[in-house]
Structures are given as C-alpha cells and as structure tokens.
Amino acid sequence: MITANKEVGKKTLLPKGNSHETKGNLIKVDSKDAKLALAHIYVAFTALLIGGLAGLLQVFVRSGAFELPFGIGYYQVLTVHGVLLGLILTTYFIMGFQIAAVSRTAGALSSTQRKLGWIGFWLMTIGTIAAASMVLLNEASVLYTFYAPLQAHWIFYAGLALVVVGSWIEGIAQIMRYAQWRKQNKGLTSPLLAFMAVVNNLMWFVASLGVAIEVLFQLLPWSLGLVDRIDVLLSRTLFWYFGHALVYFWLLPAYMIWYVVVPKVIGGKLFSDSLARLSFMLFLLFSIPVGVHHQLTEPGIDGFWKFLQVVLTFFVIVPSLMTAFSMFATFELRGRELGGKGIVGWFKQLPWKDSRFLVPFIGMVAFIPGGAGGIVNASYQMNQLIHNTIWVTGHFHLTIATAVVLTYFGAAFWLIPHITGRTLTGRMNSLANIAGILWGVGMFIMSGAMHVAGLLGAPRRSEYSTYGGSEQAAEWISYQLAQAIGGTILFISILFIIGIVINLLWFAPKGEEEFPVAEATEGSGKTPAILENFKVWGVILVALILIAYTFPIFEILDNSPAGSKGFKLW
Ligand code: HAS
Q1: pTM of the model
Q2: Residue 350 near ligand 1, beta carbon < 6 Å
Q3: CA of 373 to the centre of ligand 1 (A)
Q4: CATH number at residue 455
C-alpha cells in the first residue's frame, strides 16, 4: 500500500495494518489508546506532587532545622518519597508513554491488546493504593528498596507485586502489537520506537523475575509469619539482580525520547537507526548481570564474582557512550545545516527556546556528571569510599531525578496536549523552560552538596539526630543546608510543572500538538536484520545471567544457615 506520508511531505511506503488516525498533517495516537495513556499520566503526576512534597520535608529534616509533626517518622517520609517517585511516577509514565509510542508508530492496539492494557493499569493502581496505604499507616517504612531485615506489612509487598504483574500485562499488550506489525510487514524494519519499547519490556520481564522470587518466596511468607527468618543476603542479591536493570528500565524511555523525538523537535534526523537499535540490544544484554556492583562491600559473595560483575558493568557503559556520540552528532549535523560554523557555531543554532528540546537537554547535560559518578561507583575499590554515603544519593539525583525525569517532563509537554487535543501555548512553553532551568539549578546545588558531603563521609539514609553531635557531623551540616536550599528550588520547579500539566490537561486552548518522530539520516544505511533477531540476543542474555549469577547464588544457598523450619531459602 503506497500512501502519501503527509508528515514528511513525500511518498513513502507505509506499512500494512497500521490504522493511524490523522489530523491535518499529523499522525495521531489512536483516541482509545490515548485514553489509556492518559490514565497513566494522571497517576504519574499525582505521584510527583506527593512524592516531591515528601522530598522537601526530608531535606528539611536532614538539615536539623525542622521536626516532622504528628509523630510522622523520617523513614516513613523517605519511603513515601522513594516509592512514589522512584517506583510509581516512573512505572506509570513509562507505561503510558510506551503505549502511546507503540500506538503512534506501529498502529492502534487491537481491542484485546487494549483490554490487556486496562487490566494491567487497574492491577497496578490497586497495588499502588494498597502499598501506599501501608506506608501512610507507618506499617511499611522500609524505603524503596525494602531490604530485609526491615519488615513491612504483607499488604505492602502484595501491593508492589501487583504493580509488577500489572506492568507485565501492559508490556505483553505492547509486544503483541509489535509482533502483529512484524507479521503483517515481513522483511521490513519495524518502527524504531515500537522496537525500543519491546526491548525495554523484555528487559523488565527478565529483571523483575528476581524481585518476584524475593517477594513471593521470602518477604511475603516472612511478613505473614509463615517463616521466622529469611536469608538476608539472598534477598538482597535477588533485589539487585532486579534493581540495576530497574535503573535502565527508567533510562531507556528517556533514550527513546533522545534518539527519536528530540531530533525531530530540532528539525533534524536520527543519526543512525542501526546504532540506536544496537545500543538498546546491548542494554538488554548487560543491564541484568551487573547487580552485584551494589553489593561490593557485602561479605558472602566471593571477590571473583564481584570482579566479574564489575567488568560487565563497564560493558553496560558502552551503549550510553554510543548514545552520547549519537546525540552530539545529531545536534552538530542540524546546527551546521542551519548555518552554524566553526567548533561551537552550530551549538548556537539549536532551538533553545523550545521546552521540548531545552528541558530534556538539561537532563542530558546532567547525565554527563551523573554517568561519570556511576563509573566511580562501579570501580570496585573506589566503591568503598562512597558506598552508603550520601554521594550515592547525589549520583541518583543526577541520573534518575534529572536526566531521566526532566526528559519525561519535556515529553509530557507535547504528549499531554497531543492526547487531550490541546496545544502548548507560548506562555506555558516559557514556564516549562523556567521549570527546567530551576530544576537544573536546584539539582546542581542539592546534588553537588550531596557528592561533596559523601566524600567527607556523610552517611545516606540517616537522620540528623543520629549523628548530630559528632565532630565529623559539624563538617557535614553546611552541606545539609545547601541540600535544603537546592531541595526547595526543586519543589518550586515541581509546582511549576504540576501547573503546566493541569493547564495542558484541562485549560490549554484546543488544537493539535505533534507527536514528533524522527527519520534516520539518508546514507546511514539499511538496518541489519540481526538487530531484530530476539532469539539470538535472548540466548546471549540467558548465558550471561547464568555465568554471572549461578555460582554466587549457589554459594549463598550453600552457606545459608538453615532457618528454624529447616529450609535453606529461609
Ligand atoms: Fe547508578 C547506584 C553504577 C547509571 C541510578 N544508581 C545507583 C542508585 C540508583 C542509581 C538509584 O557501580 C542507588 C541504589 C540504592 O538505593 O542503593 N550507575 C552506575 C553506572 C552507570 C549508572 C556504571 N544509575 C545509572 C542510571 C540510573 C542510576 C542511568 C538511573 C536512571 N550506580 C552504580 C553503582 C551503584 C549505583 C555501582 C552502587 C553504589 C553503591 O555502592 O551503593 C552507567 O550506566 C552510567 C553511564 C553513563 C554515561 C554518561 C553518558 C552521557 C550521555 C549524555 C550526553 C549528553 C549530551 C548533551 C549529548 C557514561 C548519554 C550535550 C551536552 C553538551 C554540553 C553539548
């Protein structure tokens, strides 16, 4: 079927089976899929507001200048902050964005796929309400990593399990749509965004098996009183098998936006489709067999396996370096196309006033020190300097809480109006830019202070009162005040963002906003079919996981003291 692809203004081969809605020159996300995506956006931004408020309270408490009222505990607030922002905002935004992205690029979901999407959404939402209720009742102040031996009410674990199961079902719906596209278009390269969403879902399935086993076989029986104790090292190892891939589950949607959306926003093209697909496949391979780099200081895992996973961690840095290269190339090509000359002339040509570009760009810049900090963390002996210090908190506020979430926000500024049939006005665009800049400044102050205080030995996850009197603490206090200042600026930025989201949902003028999708540059070559051969990559993935984890888990089980019920898992 040859159709005029109005979006790029030239004749192209449009794949079969795509039931795209179009309006004027725009290809729209199907309206029923749009509703499903929008439901996720509501929950995500509600989580941002409440989680952000908890974050503000927390930096105040740590500064020592503020006490929580009504007997609310520091760890309770910290759990609200981590769970709502780290787990709920992210998972909902990712699922909503990916559903919209698959529908936009591979075509509308079938009614079965959409039903699965809604079932997943409601399971996730019931789970979120259950887990959040327990946290609010102070029955689950176990932080977002819910490490044993901190114990929560069983409803908290069951709630989080529902969130994971719901996200699996939503992932299956997206994969089904992609598989349908490939069946109908044999021999054609699939739409890049849909492919990327599939890779992220696959990684998520394989990774979340670890936390599913931990919750089902350890935490739930223990919190229900069926067993007296559990093997803490095993539970942490299962958690981190999942936990490091979790950070890439957050990152990959941001990379989808960097690779596919941002180039279109600046009027340019994707540097190379093959390079983008290869980097995603490398993430699929190397995101999982690296979790032990969070456990480098833990006894009970042999140094050899720690070293192996450190080496594998250095492999997972490669696709990020490829992404940095690709983004620089995209920016430079576009800047020169617009007449930019010399070493930096092209840089000035980029659309600095467009929030769809500027806000994710601030995220990209933050990812340079964020990624460098990650390399320090992963560098075996160096990890001993920063482990369990507030440096780590600084690291993840640059990565997830700036690079990733600013990219999500930048995307929300076109995605929400695209879905609601409204437009981002010039005024809202300027407010969005201000919010992005405030976020960058607030985070520079807060995260910078966290990094320095961490190097001076300030612990993470600890209240002022627990070390307030010590000599060393005096050195840390000024940095804690800086954190409170940065945190306040961040909260102001959150209020701006929530205001913009409310405007885009209900008050912005009616109109059409584009869902930008870039094409690859001419001459970047045909994408090799191997990059879509999931069987080949799947085999390598399983092999790497077995190599990295079989012996450590075997050794943990073998050395585990038998619990009172005599079963070694506990
Ligand atoms: Fe990490 C701890 C290692 C990336 C999140 N990390 C954490 C924790 C979180 C987290 C939440 O090895 C704390 C967990 C907890 O609660 O205990 N991390 C790494 C490494 C990377 C890395 C090697 N982390 C991330 C990302 C995260 C994230 C991404 C969230 C999304 N991390 C660790 C380690 C620990 C850790 C240890 C444990 C520490 C401990 O002891 O507890 C790498 O993936 C980083 C690679 C990234 C780069 C940067 C590439 C730069 C790009 C931007 C280009 C910019 C452009 C703009 C184009 C190499 C792509 C143009 C700019 C101009 C100026 C023109």
Answers
A1: 0.93
A2: no
A3: 7
A4: 1.20.210.10
